[in-house]
């Protein structure tokens, strides 16, 4: 029986910074951000949007009452965890009113863990006919004001409902994973921000992609021409492009190269305006691809997932007929277009208030029609969420 992605949605906070403004403030050429790393905007989250509220906001519109009865597992993939013990999925499960006899867990491996969650969900569903699994990737990428990684920050969440007989993407049984112990990016528990070796991180990403692609191709017999498109984890949009070009060599016909590279650009349209959302970056890219590229039923999409440290995985999915009817492109475009632009001074104020957990709800909740849930307060380390009717 076919298993895969039945529903997809995302939530991006209502504020952003222009890369032009950030470049001017940091006294660098704007093309360093807009062309060099391929970013135009950077999502900024207020204190009232954490990984839990963003995850709920991403999932709330796609779940029917029947879905909530059928969901047997809720998995949150994140590297922005707010508790070393309690899983974020427990709060999300409660706020979404999912039936009580569901397993709730949170998993971690840098930006890769949403893919691990999907594979876990797929294995679970193979033995549980009629059940569903909700996977939520929710993250806040923060490197510090005026840091080297600042232009690759971002925030957001992606929700994926996996089921039998999916209506968007059927997951194929061809995944290949690769693990290599490397210190390219990591987040010690004693540190507020990640530790990053920028050059090593880029090299490790490309090395992981090439290694796992070669193994995947060897095991499956697939070549680039067998796919309608490729989708990458994109900490910034030029990263996936650089890796992709390493396999679009002289042995690949120009017509195929052009087709695949055009599809790649369609896949990162929304990532350019959001920034890095860690575990959700690959799946935001997938949504962008599905809503900006025209597919025929059963065409294959190849997906590359990467998490620093490092784990890489390639797997594929087959397009389901009528997939476009399940996705709400108008909502997604409106969400991205209706965000409020922050000045650099406002952005820095937001950033510092987040670090200090200083709420300003009147400012933060201004004109965000896509947020029905927000973090209202934190007292004695207990978080209280408010649901807007």
From TrEMBL:
Residues 3-163 form the Hydroxymethylglutaryl-coenzyme A synthase N-terminal domain. Residues 177-254, 264-384 form the Hydroxymethylglutaryl-coenzyme A synthase C-terminal domain. Keywords: Acyltransferase, Transferase. It holds the Pfam family HMG_CoA_synt_C. Its EC number is 2.3.3.10. Gene3D superfamilies: 3.40.47.10. InterPro entries: HMG_CoA_synt_C_dom, HMG_CoA_synth_N, HMG_CoA_synthase_prok, Thiolase-like. The keyword Transferase applies. One of its GO terms (molecular function) is hydroxymethylglutaryl-CoA synthase activity. NCBIfam families: HMG-CoA-S_prok. PANTHER family: 3-HYDROXY-3-METHYLGLUTARYL COENZYME A SYNTHASE (PTHR43323), HYDROXYMETHYLGLUTARYL-COA SYNTHASE (PTHR43323:SF2). Belongs to the thiolase-like superfamily. HMG-CoA synthase family. This is Hydroxymethylglutaryl-CoA synthase. It comes from Mammaliicoccus vitulinus.
């Amino acid at each position: 029986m076919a298993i895969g992605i039945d529903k997809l949605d995302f939530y991006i906070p209502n504020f952003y910074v222009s890369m032009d403004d950030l470049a001017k403030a940091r006294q660098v050429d704007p093309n360093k951000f807009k062309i060099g790393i391929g970013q135009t905007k950077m999502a900024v989250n207020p204190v009232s949007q954490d990984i839990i509220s963003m995850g709920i906001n991403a999932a709330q519109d796609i779940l029917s009452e029947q879905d909530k009865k059928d969901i047997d597992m809720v998995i949150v993939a994140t590297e922005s965890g707010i508790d070393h013990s309690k899983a974020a999925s427990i709060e999300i499960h409660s706020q979404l009113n999912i039936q009580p006899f569901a397993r709730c867990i949170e998993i971690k491996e840098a930006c890769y863990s949403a893919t691990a969650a999907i594979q876990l969900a797929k294995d679970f569903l193979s033995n549980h006919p009629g059940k569903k699994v909700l996977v939520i990737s929710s993250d806040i990428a923060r490197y510090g004001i005026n840091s080297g990684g600042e232009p690759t920050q971002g925030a957001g969440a992606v929700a994926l409902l996996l089921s039998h007989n999916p209506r968007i993407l059927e997951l194929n049984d061809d995944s290949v994973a690769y693990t290599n112990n490397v210190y390219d990016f990591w987040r010690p528990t004693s540190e507020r921000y990640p530790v990053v070796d920028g050059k090593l991180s880029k090299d490790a990403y490309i090395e992981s992609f090439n290694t796992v692609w070669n193994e995947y191709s060897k095991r499956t017999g697939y070549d680039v021409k067998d796919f309608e498109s490729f989708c990458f984890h994109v900490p910034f949009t030029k990263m996936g492009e650089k890796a992709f070009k390493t396999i679009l060599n002289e042995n690949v016909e120009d017509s195929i190269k052009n087709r695949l590279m055009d599809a790649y650009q369609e896949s990162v349209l929304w990532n350019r305006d959001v920034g890095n959302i860690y575990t959700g970056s690959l799946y935001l890219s997938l949504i962008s691809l599905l809503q900006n590229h025209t597919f025929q039923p059963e065409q294959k999409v190849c997906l590359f997932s990467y998490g620093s440290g490092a784990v890489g995985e390639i797997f594929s999915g087959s397009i389901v007929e009528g997939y476009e009817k399940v996705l709400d492109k108008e909502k997604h475009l409106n969400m991205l277009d209706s965000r409020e632009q922050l000045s650099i001074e406002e952005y820095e104020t937001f950033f510092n208030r987040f670090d200090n957990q200083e709420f300003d709800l009147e400012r933060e909740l201004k004109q965000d029609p896509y947020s029905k849930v927000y973090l209202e307060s934190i007292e004695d380390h207990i978080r209280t969420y408010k649901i807007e009717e």
